[in-house]
Amino acid sequence: MTIAPVSQFCLKCGGPLSSRIVDALPRLSCQCGFVLFENPTPVVAAVVDHPDGILLVRGKGFPQGWYGMVTGFVERCEHPEQAVLREVNEELGLPGRVAAFIGHYIFEPRNQLVIAYHVFADGPIVLGDELEAVKAVPRDELKPSSLVPALNDGEWPFGAGQAIRDWLNR
């Protein structure tokens, strides 16, 4: 999969960027010596374990019926565990506690590194501004089609599906 570069011009001198091999990988660079590394953005994701079930969310603009994990960006100087708890609170209005690290996953379409956690949360759910809906899925019914119905229980190859698969397999 090819990811569109964030810029076609040098962030240092404004000159055009061209592809060349740097550190054994093709990277955009400029004649002035600037190299655009396009490092992935760190994102946290939570399998939110609530008394009502595993909470899945649908963000505003998601296709109807599509749900995912609570996710969000890691802020500058923020530990990923702090970030995932902040996101659960912002998106669901719930205080939480990290139960376990699930794993890290590459989400290539957006050049993100997803850092996933199992989070326990309790209390009344209050949807944040970014969400359109939430659904609670009983743990024993959680499967890829809980996220995207069209998958018919098949493997969901992206970060959230992989994290849920790994969490369920433990």
Q: How would you describe this structure to a colleague?
A:
By secondary structure, the protein is an alpha+beta fold. The protein has helices spanning 80-92, 144-147, 159-168, and strands spanning 18-22, 25-29, 35-36, 41-50, 53-59, 70-73, 96-107, 112-121, 131-137. It has two domains: 1-38, Ubiquitin Ligase Nedd4, Chain: W; 41-168, Nucleoside Triphosphate Pyrophosphohydrolase.
Write the topology of this structure:
Layout (H helix, E strand, L loop, with lengths): L17 E5 L2 E5 L5 E2 L4 E10 L2 E7 L10 E4 L6 H13 L3 E12 L4 E10 L9 E7 L6 H4 L11 H10 L2
Parallel strand pairs: 4-8
Antiparallel strand pairs: 1-2, 2-3, 4-5, 4-6, 5-9, 7-8
SS-based class? alpha+beta
Largest sheet: 6 strands, mixed
Predict the CATH topology of the largest domain: Nucleoside Triphosphate Pyrophosphohydrolase
Radius of gyration: 19 Å
Count of DSSP strands:
9
Features:
single chain; 2 domains; alpha+beta; three-stranded antiparallel β-sheet; 36% strand; 170 residues; six-stranded mixed β-sheet; Ubiquitin Ligase Nedd4, Chain: W; Nucleoside Triphosphate Pyrophosphohydrolase; 3 helices
What is the compact description of this entry?
The chain has 170 residues and is an alpha+beta fold.
